[in-house]
Amino acid sequence: MTVSPAGAVKHDDPGLARCEAAARRLLLSHAYKGRKRFCPRCRGGKVYALADGRLRCAACRYTFHELTGRFVNVGGLSCRDWLRLTRLFAAEATASHMAEELGLAYNTVYRAVTVIRFAIVASAPDAAQILFGETGRAMGYDDGRIAMSRGTDAEGQIPVFGIIERPDWTFVDLVPDMRVEHVVHFNLNFSLKVARLGKVVYTDRYQHYDALMFCGGDDSRRYADILDRTPFLDSRTGGFWRFAQSRLRRYNGVSARRFPLYLKELEFRYNHRKDDILPILLAYLCNLVPKREQSDLF
Description:
Layout: H1 20-32, E1 47-49, E2 55-57, E3 63-64, H2 79-90, H3 95-102, H4 106-122, H5 127-131, H6 134-139, E4 141-142, E5 145-146, E6 161-165, E7 170-174, H7 180-190, E8 194-197, E9 200-203, E10 211-215, H8 240-250, H9 259-271, H10 278-285
Antiparallel strand pairs: 1-2, 2-3, 4-5, 6-7, 6-10, 8-9, 9-10
Helix pairs in contact: 2-4, 3-4, 4-9, 8-9
């Protein structure tokens, strides 16, 4: 038989977080969006229920749960805890505050917040470019698997992003083939203005970008000799950079390895600053974790 979705939930009532069954129904409504269940491996639409509550695909014979293969299935949290944690994340609570509020271990919360950030990146227009390349591997993304280690930054090139800002939105673009060494070269030989906010280094306008930006990690001080504190972003009284600055200062120990996650989160928050982002985040969390061979399906 074909299994139909659970009863639809029309809104994200905070009271739903008090009940695991209701929280699960809410997440399933985001996962399937009113459609019939389908196989997360082959996307076949004919699945049937097994006696133990799992589902099986009639086409490829894959056996799975309703949330198998989705971001919300990473980390081992209950549906109720995912709802509560995502609500706090939407309100910009720190991981320490979330852990205290939810009664969870800090490392558990940190892993869950990292999953949310990966889900945000996976829903961005440039998701494939970021996740399936060198930057994704450095962040700990391995073709659908997320490594949660907080160890030293992975070796490799530091990614450089370009900031494109318009009156109502901002796009943070991973600049192809751009390296930190190029930024240094442009500064030393072509007077490209450069400044730093902690570990984050940013420049004046470059080509069609309002700024180039990267995180130098613990070695950011080695760029001190190229600093010139008058780039374009600092001349603006509002916009994305003013929005991002205060939030970057609150982040505790942003690493060069995971900086792209934070930067794309800031892009998302800025572009949705007038919206209720909780239902958007829940929808992202309930998406399937993308794999390279299936990236054209996202």
